[in-house]
From TrEMBL:
Alphabetical list of InterPro entries matching this protein: Cullin_N, Cullin_repeat-like_dom_sf
Gene Ontology MF terms in the entry: ubiquitin protein ligase binding
Domain Cullin N-terminal as annotated: residue spans: 13-152
UniProt-listed GO biological process terms: ubiquitin-dependent protein catabolic process
Family assignment from sequence similarity: Belongs to the cullin family.
Protein name: Cullin repeat-like-containing domain protein
Length: 160
């Protein structure tokens, strides 16, 4: 049940606002930011019961939404890249600036997952878990940088 609820919270409350942050389509108000942060945190607290916050499945289920989201999102950035290689450096720079700035905000927005899930599992010796920011940047590297870098290397941008 909690897994389905996590997906619903992600799809209806978190994802649309995260997309708004990453695209910069319109500024996220403080009130919206606070509401979105509280929604995610309250979902995690709901699964707490008598256990500590960092020891519940709601964290795991919500965290499980992050990597597929960033993989899909960065894949769409790559797919939208111009076919004209001479326009690619400018496109890449604009998208990188937007993405990296937005990722910093999203990392803070989902900080409760970093603190109460990722940190706990790392302390227990589990490897392979990344902060929200690192999940995002690794998705960028895999889906945008690695895919576009051969084309970027072949442009005249930056050459004397």
């Amino acid at each position: 049940m909690a897994q389905g609820e996590a997906q619903e919270v992600w799809e209806t409350d978190l994802k649309p606002n995260i997309i708004q942050i990453l695209t910069g389509s319109e500024p996220l108000t403080y009130a919206t930011y606070s509401t979105v942060y509280s929604t995610g945190l309250n979902f995690i607290l709901k699964g707490k019961g008598k256990r500590k916050i960092d020891n519940n499945d709601n964290c795991k289920y919500l965290y499980a939404q992050v990597e597929p989201f960033f993989a899909e999102y960065t894949g769409s950035i790559c797919a939208a890249a111009p076919s004209n290689d001479s326009a690619l450096p400018a496109y890449y720079d604009v998208e990188w600036d937007r993405f990296s700035g937005g990722t910093s905000i999203v990392d803070r927005l989902l900080d409760y997952l970093n603190k109460h899930y990722v940190s706990r599992l790392r302390a227990e010796g589990k490897t392979g878990l990344q902060t929200i920011r690192n999940v995002a940047f690794n998705s960028w590297k895999t889906n945008v940088f690695d895919a576009l870098s051969p084309r970027l290397e072949n442009t005249d941008a930056g050459k004397p």
